[in-house]
Amino acid sequence: MKKSISLTINGTKVDAEVDQNITLLSFIRDEMGLMGTKEGCGTGDCGACTVIIDGLAVKSCIYLAVEADGKEITTIEGLSIDGELHPIQQAFVEEGAVQCGFCIPGTILSAKALLDENEDPTEEEIKKGIAGNLCRCTGYVRIIKAIKKSAKVLQKAK
Amino acid sequence: MAYRVVGRSVARNDVIDKVTGRAKYAPDVVIPHMLHGKILFSPYASARIINIDTSLAKSLLGVRAVITGKDVPYTYGSVIKDRPIFAQDVVRYQGEPIVGIVADSEVIAEEALNLIKIEYEEKEPILDPFEAMKADSSLLHADLGSYQHNKITYPEAETNICSHYKLRKGNVDDAFEKSDYIFEGEFSSQMIQHAFIEPIVAVADADNVTKRITIWSTACNPFVIRKELSSAFNIPMGKIRMIVNNVGGSFGGKAYSKIEPHVAALSLACSAPVRLALTREEVFNLIVRGPGHFKIKTGLMKDGTIVARKIETVWDTGAYAECGPVIARNSGHTAAGPYRIPNVKIDAYCVYTNKNIAGAFRGYGVQEATWAVESHMDDIAREMDIDPYDLRKKNILHYGDEGATGQIVEGTGLEQCLDAAWEAVNRKEIKRKSGSKLMGRGMACVHKATLAPSVSSAIIKLSEDGTATLLTSTTEQGQGATTVMAQIIAEELGLPYEEIYVSGTDTDYTPYDTTTTASRSTFSMGNAVLLAARDIKEQLMIIAAEYIGVDKDELTFEFGKIKVSSQPEKSYTIKEIVSKYYGLNGTLIGRGLYRPDSVPEDSETGQSTKITPFWMYGTQAAEVEIDIETGEINVLKLVAAHDMGSAINPMNCRQQLEGAALQGIGNTLYEEIKLNDKGITVNPNFHDYKIPTAMDSVEIESILIESQQKDGPYGAKGVGEPALAPTGPAIRNAILDALNIGLNHLPLTQEKILAAIEENKEKLEGC
Ligand code: FES
Ligand code: FES
Fold this sequence. Notes:
The structure holds two protein chains of two kinds.
Chain A: E1 2-9, E2 12-19, H1 24-31, E3 50-53, E4 56-59, E5 72-74, H2 87-95, H3 104-117, H4 123-129, H5 141-157
Parallel strand pairs in A: 1-5
Antiparallel strand pairs in A: 1-2, 3-4, 3-5
Chain B: H1 15-20, E1 35-41, E2 47-53, H2 55-59, E3 63-68, E4 75-76, E5 83-84, E6 90-91, E7 97-103, H3 106-113, E8 117-122, H4 129-133, E9 161-169, H5 172-178, E10 181-189, E11 201-206, E12 213-217, H6 222-233, E13 240-244, H7 260-270, E14 274-277, H8 280-286, E15 292-300, E16 306-318, H9 324-334, E17 343-352, H10 366-384, H11 388-395, H12 413-425, E18 433-434, E19 437-449, E20 456-463, E21 468-471, H13 481-493, E22 500-502, E23 505-506, H14 521-548, E24 555-558, E25 561-564, E26 571-573, H15 574-582, E27 587-594, E28 615-627, E29 633-643, H16 650-669, E30 700-705, H17 727-739, H18 750-759, H19 761-765
Parallel strand pairs in B: 1-14, 12-13, 16-17, 21-22, 29-30
Antiparallel strand pairs in B: 1-7, 2-6, 2-8, 3-7, 4-5, 9-17, 10-15, 11-12, 11-14, 13-23, 15-16, 18-19, 19-28, 20-21, 20-27, 24-25, 25-26, 28-29
Helix pairs in contact in B: 9-10, 10-17, 13-14, 14-15, 16-17
């Protein structure tokens, strides 16, 4: 059974006919071709598929595409504007927070949702904010540093 | 000598793509009209297949092919060729592939799976390696004696021992006789999983008329897999094309064929592109780090000099050999510890059981062997009432010493690592007790060999605008290899680092490299890249001489500029020379081939004057706090001091040490793949198999020791794998220091610590 949905992805309005049981992750990757959103487990346990829905970080592998009807979605592709990295992306580059990179889009989006909500988080709040984003490469040390740094940059820009 | 690019923490050359989501991984490969594959895996650890009925599945609309072992009666495996692509009547572990399906969509493929009817005769699985080693045990592979195998595998026909590695040096029995003290210990390491975040995915596009096969996969040694496929399918290597772009973490778990033979078979069956993507659960069941068991006996003189060490290890490798025999053997290079011991005897048995298949995990058995020997070292120190640091300091391998494998130590970094790590963790006094919490410190050392023999080759294309592209088959799996290679070229040719491009692997176009494992890339591929850059330089000098009209001997090359001795005020850029030489278009091609020196081992004694082109060294120290009421343990600080040879990119080196440290903490304190009594994994997902999250991250001090590897590119050698090994025993020894309790069996869970505290109440009184 197909259902029509209409949503905004990275600022662009999208109308689509989707199967009732496909996940938002599958819609984003397979229908929209936005491959920056990754699938690590498909069961809501790793956070690689994290996107932002109406300001909240959500695991798109356990979220139905039809539920996204009328909502505003941000994926990693929506973060850098006009060839400029978003300050969080920039901080990840500068702090050396990236290794294999597979967890990174999801982690950056969790960080963005956190900083949009709480502009000056403590280290503990940062750790909590990305606790659902598993990374096997980095030990998180530099990821945490990068998020701290980007919080400062974003605050200054205000 | 001061370098401009080498030794600097330049940003990784893959990082922008990785933060913008543009980086392409195998799961992102889409081919027009691609079909989808699924595999039916065995639900039993040991069984006979009586009948497979695929008729209903075949008739489902949208199903394109259904294949079983009958359709592809081939085996593969480059260590031991013991593994069928799809089961041939016998099931040897849960997760054995039985049937492959291709359909228009994953949903249809899944539906078709449910329509397959298989009749099994379930058998009692052999799950205990010690049982499996007994003479009267039933055999997993009755044909072991006739299987093809590589030169460093020593199978014992008519047994379940698929390899028995031996190391013999001096005479341990005599030395034990003469020892003042003898200590013995037993240790074990558990089954764990790599838990890379990118699952295992492959896409194959094969043509069953020409037998040409192209595979995009998450592999970290595409040339090994190409060879395995060529041998299994009897197709020439040149017809098989392996393409690997970014790999989302491997830690050894993506080495050797994983699902490449299956996806190739599926694609050949319907002569169309097929994508095969494993679920996380399937990944957990496909590959693990197997359990290890260690018995160690050490003889010492009164003054603490170690004179003899005997070690017996049993490696539970699961149903097929994979690279288990290499793990058993390589662990033997490490197992005696980085100490000067004149008499050593090691027996390492790699044993088949009906368990999950054990593969390489960041160090090929070195993490496990280090766990055992370094725990044993602290037990000895405690018994003899010597400071564990002093015991190590006294016995540690120095320049010119002969190690257990018979190789003379050429590096000097180990003692520096030992001193630096111990100093760093002892900078502040610790409070040994506060309320119900006890604190302690511990340390552990590691030495590790790399792979030998091996070959790396590289091609550099220098374009007419003076920018360079490197063609290399080192796979980028997060370790930062592409960055280091670009730094080497930039340094050698004096080009801007940002203008060096590095390819992914494509066996049709990128030249041979043995494998991206064993922490060999910086050294081996780095040397190949350096040679390719020098080849470019050599050619530049020839064409510059021609263009300028002077003798080649008059030219010198400095930081990307060519100078003429008779015209000191003039210099020529690379771009100028190349573009003048070619006119409008053209590229200069530099080639580099590197085959590090090594000497094969004696099969009876394991002795070789050069078992490995270089040794890697490190020491880690931990500070822990344990609540004796709850058994909860907190790692307060971890110091990792490792010898890089030289740090081509210090940030990359630190990333390796930090990432390994937290991986090591998870491996030590809670990770464990659990099987039930039928041999079925009970926790094959990230919910039940917990890996460290950001909440578990700890303070890590990384110390880079630079001892200058004499034949390494700019003095560099490897670091990724040894970085994981000492974390576990350093934590364990810190627990020993805090509680006076030695825990010998991994993982050291809160429950296990609490139980040990309860059992040893009286010991704790004095703390
Ligand atoms: S893929 Fe969604 S949480 Fe893992
Ligand atoms: S960078 Fe590899 S999983 Fe995070």
